[in-house]
Write a structure and sequence with these properties.
Largest sheet of chain B: 8 strands, mixed
Radius of gyration of chain A: 24 Å
Helix content of chain B: 55-70%
Radius of gyration of chain B: 26 Å
Structural class of chain A: alpha/beta
Distance between the termini of chain B: 52 Å
Strand content of chain B: 5-15%
Order of helices and strands of chain A: EHEHEEHHHHEHHHEHEHHHEH
Shape of chain B: globular
Distance between the termini of chain A: 13 Å
Oligomer: heterodimer
Strand content of chain A: 5-15%
Number of strands of chain A: 8
Number of strands of chain B: 8
Number of helices of chain B: 15
Largest interface: A-B, 82 and 75 residues
């Protein structure tokens, strides 16, 4: 009954090079997944409070909060009534809170937990101890994805989620971030932390997880995406799709683009059309339009070559338009609908 | 504070225009010894650093540029594709009394060198082999920031001694938060002073003098969580590292002072996007708070204003009329749509910049238009350099 490309996936990890809009894509994906009454959790781990900015809600605490209704309607577009919309919850994960929660949950460390804090151990573990930070952040995502969660964690009522979207660290760090085992190698060869890391890895390596990469049609981000996919595959982490973001509008046909590049667009015709609809015509306007078309066409040609490279990666790809006035809440829902039309959710 | 108090300071609605940043004056001033380029990820810090360094060299300065993670082809064009942590001369720079060396930071190597220089060979070996050191020096999220600053300190000391360079341009790591690198020295030194370290050192220093209740609790809790082996490794690491701590702290402090000195100029790099500019504002505040000398803001990848005055609304209205009229010709509609799109983006960017200028009124700004292609050779860097200095045609 589902038409999504990722029917088995519960954990969607979204990464991307800086500046490609990975947080926007993660938010849009969460909205798209939260349809047909589904409940979705959107997590951020980089301490930037990007979710609160995008959804225009107060800064998020370490507590799961409902921040928006999902995108109404199902993927086949049959029912677009609001009753079908699900809910998007959000969680801002910080390593210190995750560690304290972890200690309280698994070790019942009341007094000792406080002593650890007093001696600066919490501070040490979360800011300085290598790799521990990532283990805590990924461990928390794992906890949220678990069946039969305990109450009184970052979710008071032990809320269960149909899907979790993780706004993850950038492409250059993603394999290292998710490969918590690797990071701990040599540090904890045995013991409880190692065991915890193993369990987390089992989820990350399973078909229940997909790592999506966000890029724009430029050389460096595309190169980094290809490198990132290779790294993920090497680490045996499941690669999801590539989301091409900020795609330029396609208002000109292939022929017109070629003519624009060659400088052979029909100038007289453009002038005639403009006059016919009462636009005051002068050389600045017409030449401006033609030269804008030319630089657009040049850029589009470069985009096309990058699109081919993305195709070579061999994973499903999705494209999101560049919204000229920036991304606001309405824009996020538009992007969510676009993702769903293309089968990402 | 009463509500009636009149608002002082800039109004966000006045369409603030920032003073322009005179890049050439900055580069030519012999008092400028260090330029630090900072900003959030993906805004073109590395390219800007390289372009500034090249321009300064071709205007007669003896420059070294320290880059963190350049794109492969850019690194190749500068001759630094091999990571050997030493500045290498960049060939093919224009004839001038100046020179340009470039290097890519090898964070682990820099860390290793610090250890080797500070400890006896025996002790250094112990440290370098410890699993905690290996993890700390290669994957700890703050190490790159700290090592960039360490390397800057080294380059500056060497340059003072040998006179090989009179200008150092530094690119900063693509931090999660652009502020991380400022905190790195502080964080390291507060960690080194921390109670926890002293706690770990206690057993190594002989009979446990501070066998307090707290201590017992901690050790047993840690053993429970980490396992005994890990705790042992950690204790050995801290004990071996102990002798170096003083030196580290001193150097971190020196580097921090160097960043505050008059010869240093910070440039905040951003793109005309809300996130990048928000980060830039934090950065400006933070630099001011730490009394770091801020030279200005560079906004990369700006969209260029179209030449004609036709507004987006006018263009879209014309499209509508064209569609109603026949729909036979889509070329003119397409051109008008493209124009409207461009105008809207330019307006949005101008709005974002005006807001930044209103919040940070005295920050001198240079705006660099987006190029159609990525930069991966010296000519591309020269072009960026002249756009930065606003001398391009």
């Amino acid at each position: 009954m589902s038409t999504t490309d990722w029917p088995k996936v519960q954990l969607h990890v979204v990464t991307g090079k800086g500046g490609t809009g990975k947080s926007t894509v993660a938010a849009a994906l969460a909205l798209a997944l939260a349809s047909r009454g589904k409940t979705v959790l959107l997590c951020e781990v980089e301490g930037r409070q990007g979710i609160s900015q995008m959804f225009d809600v107060p800064p998020l605490p370490y507590e799961e909060r409902r921040i928006a209704s999902g995108l109404p309607g199902s993927s086949d577009g049959s029912s677009a009534d609001h009753s079908s919309a699900g809910s998007v919850y959000a969680l801002h994960i910080d390593a210190e809170s995750a560690l304290l929660e972890y200690l309280a949950m698994y070790y019942k460390l009341g007094r000792a937990g406080k002593a650890l804090d007093r001696f600066g151990v919490i501070d040490f573990a979360t800011t300085v101890a290598p790799g521990v930070r990532d283990v805590l952040l990924t461990g928390k995502v794992f906890e949220a994805a678990k069946d039969g969660r305990k109450r009184g964690t970052s979710s008071r009522g032990g809320q269960q989620y149909d899907a979790i979207v993780l706004d993850a660290p950038p492409t250059g760090r993603i394999a290292q971030f998710l490969n918590v085992n690797g990071e701990l190698a040599g540090l904890a060869k045995a013991g409880p932390i190692k065991k915890q890391a193993d369990t987390v890895m089992t989820l990350f390596r399973s078909p229940r997880t997909a790592v999506h990469l966000v890029t724009v049609l430029e050389e460096m981000p595309v190169q980094e995406t290809a490198d990132g996919v290779a790294e993920l595959r090497e680490a045996r982490l499941p690669v999801g799709g590539v989301v091409v973001n900020l795609v330029r509008p396609r208002d000109l046909s292939a022929d017109q683009l070629e003519a624009a590049r060659a400088g052979t667009l029909d100038r007289d015709r453009v002038e005639g059309d403009l006059r016919a609809v009462g636009v005051p015509v002068d050389d600045v306007l017409v030449e401006g339009l033609l030269s804008e078309a030319r630089s657009h066409a040049e850029r589009r040609a470069l985009e096309e070559s990058q699109r081919t490279l993305i195709g070579d990666i061999g994973v499903p790809t999705y494209e999101l338009p560049r919204l000229p006035s920036g991304v606001d809440m309405g824009g996020l829902y538009d992007l969510a609908a676009t993702l769903r039309e293309q089968g990402m959710a | 504070m009463s509500r009636q108090r009149t608002r002082v300071g800039p109004l966000a609605t006045t369409g603030e225009v920032a003073p322009s940043l005179d890049v050439d004056a900055l580069l030519d001033n012999p008092a400028t010894e260090i330029i630090v380029c900072c900003g959030s990820g993906g805004v073109g810090k590395t390219t800007t650093s390289a372009a500034l360094a090249l321009r300064a060299a071709e205007r007669g300065r003896k420059v070294v540029v320290l880059t963190i993670d350049p794109a492969r082809r850019l690194a190749q064009s500068m001759g630094i594709e091999s990571l050997d942590n030493t500045p290498r001369p960049v060939r093919d720079i224009a004839d001038s009394p100046g020179s340009l060396d470039a290097m890519m930071l090898d964070m682990k190597r820099t860390f290793d060198e610090v250890v080797e220089n500070q400890a006896t060979p025996e002790k250094a070996r112990q440290i370098l082999e410890n699993p905690f050191y290996i993890a700390l020096s290669s994957s700890f999220a703050g190490t790159q920031e700290y090592m960039a600053m360490e390397k800057l300190g080294q380059l500056h000391r060497d340059a003072k001694k040998s006179g090989a360079y009179d200008l150092i341009v530094v690119d900063t790591p693509p931090s999660r938060s652009a502020l991380d690198f400022l905190d790195a020295p502080e964080r390291l030194s507060s960690f080194l002073d921390g109670k926890f370290i002293r706690l770990l050192l206690a057993p190594a220093r002989g009979p446990a003098r501070i066998m307090t209740a707290g201590f017992g609790l901690i050790t047993s809790a840690l053993t429970k969580i980490l396992g005994a082996t890990v705790l042992q490794d950690l204790q050995m690491f801290v004990a071996a590292f102990d002798t170096l701590f003083g030196g580290f702290r001193q150097r971190a402090q020196k580097t921090f002072e160097l960043l505050q000195a008059d010869g240093t100029a910070f440039l905040v790099i951003a793109a005309p996007e809300p996130d990048a500019l928000r980060e830039a504002t934090y950065f400006v505040d933070r630099l001011r708070g730490e009394q770091m000398p801020l030279a200005g803001l560079v906004v990369n990848r700006a969209s260029m204003k179209p030449e004609s005055e036709l507004s987006a609304d006018e263009a879209m209205a014309a499209v509508e009329r064209l569609t109603r009229r026949d729909g036979g010709t889509d070329l003119t509609s397409g051109l008008l749509r493209l124009h409207a799109d461009r105008v809207r983006i330019v307006e949005r960017e101008a709005g974002l910049r005006a807001r930044f200028a209103a919040a940070n009124p005295s920050v001198a700004t240079a705006v660099v238009p987006a190029l159609a292609t990525d930069v991966h050779d010296l000519d591309g860097l020269r072009r960026i350099g002249s756009l930065l200095a606003d001398t391009a045609d």
